[in-house]
Design a protein that fits this description.
Length: 452
């Protein structure tokens, strides 16, 4: 049965416990948090040494899982078997997604890439040993196309030898374990001892597989679909997760640090959690983590530099703006990406100016504290923005700190001046798209004009 985490927890509290819980989705933090909460509801910490059994998907063995599930607990109460990152739901339909996991994580998280690679080998039916020493070159293009629908066979030459080399260097090998799900299906539909519970987590599942259908009928399925990047839902999830971690650590983030953390991590749950853990360690005995800590711990990305560029333009700092622009171009950031970010910033400033000009924000002052803005001004803006519908191009749809800063900055501009900047940006956009000119020179002239 499909249900929400809240429904699952309420059921456990009310005495309705499933023999099997499947928790899956791309939001790794939410899956892990849901697992922790369900285990907390099922087992007191004092009982976990004897009644909690945990294994990872790369080491899972169906025979061992079934035997543990059918064996009564050593202590009275519930017995919980957890399989994290199970591969039971992978199929050939998962091949493309697994390849994406490999290529996306090969640089930053080699262990995760290796795990996806071993899962890929399982569904392909290939032996890791047979692929070493250039054995992978023996895979025919036709065989590859049959396995990975729509993939270009030549693309494997870019990542396959690299992931094989990484696995060899790290001593990561392919495990041969029981993978026939038939026995588990029979176990789940049979008579499991009362209080014995299996919890499976996965990043994705093939819902056409029989094991998924059995669990959907016999157990509880909780899913966390990926939130749209930088959407309001994604930001809310990140802020909720940050709040939980901070509460446990006894720390707090200053408002500008909170906004900067979200911006630098792209409001990506897993990345935000990892960076926050670094910040907590760096802060030591200090209670509050501020913007200076963010600058010291989290490396700036090209997107951060684009933000610095727009900030320098807003401040009228021509020298800093030109330096940042040249750094961005040297990093290989496309000139149209830079232009689009400038257009977005000026559009937000113009929207902020219109909000102030139309009235209804008489209580707003550029010098007011952010906390006062959140309680006195933002609720009304949020309500008005909701009536207009969702949209990433609307200032009222952004994080409250973005709105706060934009309203403060827009006070420094005239309405006519912002319209003139939009005209300059439109003219620059047309020039870059229709004329064979040097983009660097065009953008430099634009930045100089906008800083005046």
């Amino acid at each position: 049965m499909k249900m929400t985490l809240k429904e699952a927890l309420n059921g456990i509290e009310g005495g309705t416990v499933s023999h099997c819980y499947l928790i899956y989705g791309n939001e790794e933090y939410l899956v892990r948090d849901a697992l922790d909460q369900i285990v907390d509801h099922l087992l007191p910490r004092d009982d976990r040494d004897f009644n909690l059994f945990v294994m990872d998907g790369e080491n899972e063995d169906i025979d061992a899982i079934c035997e543990s599930l059918m064996t009564p607990p050593l202590l009275a109460g519930n017995k919980v078997i957890v399989v994290r990152g199970t591969r039971l739901f992978h199929s050939r339909a998962s091949a493309g997604s697994l390849i994406k996991d490999i290529t996306d994580n090969l640089e930053g998280d080699g262990r995760k890439a290796a795990g996806a690679f071993m899962a890929f080998l399982d569904i392909a039916g290939w032996s890791f040993d047979d692929l070493t020493e250039d054995g992978w070159k023996g895979i025919s293009d036709d065989e590859w196309r049959r396995l990975v629908k729509g993939d270009t066979p030549s693309s494997r030459e870019e990542w396959l030898p690299r992931i094989i080399s990484f696995c060899l260097q790290q001593g990561i090998t392919q495990r041969v374990t029981g993978k026939d799900t038939g026995r588990l299906e029979e176990t789940l539909t049979g008579s499991i001892p009362a209080g014995n519970i299996l919890i499976l987590t996965a990043d994705r599942v093939d819902r056409q597989k029989r094991i998924f259908k059995v669990i959907s009928k016999q157990g509880s399925v909780i899913t966390f679909p990926a939130a749209k990047p930088r959407s309001g839902t994604q930001r809310d999830l990140v802020m909720e997760g940050i709040g939980k971690v901070l509460a446990k650590s006894g720390k707090r983030l200053s408002p500008d640090a909170m906004q900067e953390l979200g911006r630098r991590t792209g409001y990506h749950l897993r990345t935000s959690q990892k960076e926050l853990e670094k910040l907590i360690t760096y802060a030591g005995d200090t209670d509050t983590i501020d913007r200076r800590d963010i600058d010291a711990v989290i490396t700036k990305s090209s997107e951060d530099s684009i933000f610095d560029l727009t900030e320098a333009i807003v401040d009228g700092n021509t020298e800093q703006a030109l330096t940042t622009l040249r750094d961005l171009l040297n990093q290989g950031v496309h000139y149209m990406v830079i232009l689009s970010m400038l257009i977005r910033e000026i559009r937000f400033l113009l929207q902020g100016k219109l909000l102030l000009k139309e009235g209804g924000l008489d209580a707003f002052r550029p010098t007011m504290h952010y906390r006062d803005f959140q309680t006195m001004i933002y609720p009304g803006l949020k309500e008005g923005g909701a009536k207009m519908g969702k949209g990433s191009d609307r200032l009222t749809g952004q994080h409250p700190y973005v709105v706060y800063n934009n309203l403060r900055n827009s006070k420094r501009y005239s309405y006519a001046g912002l319209l003139a900047s939009m005209d300059r940006l439109a003219a620059c956009d047309l020039t870059l798209k229709t004329k064979g000119v040097n983009p660097k020179i065009v953008l430099e002239h634009l930045v100089i004009d906008m800083c005046r």
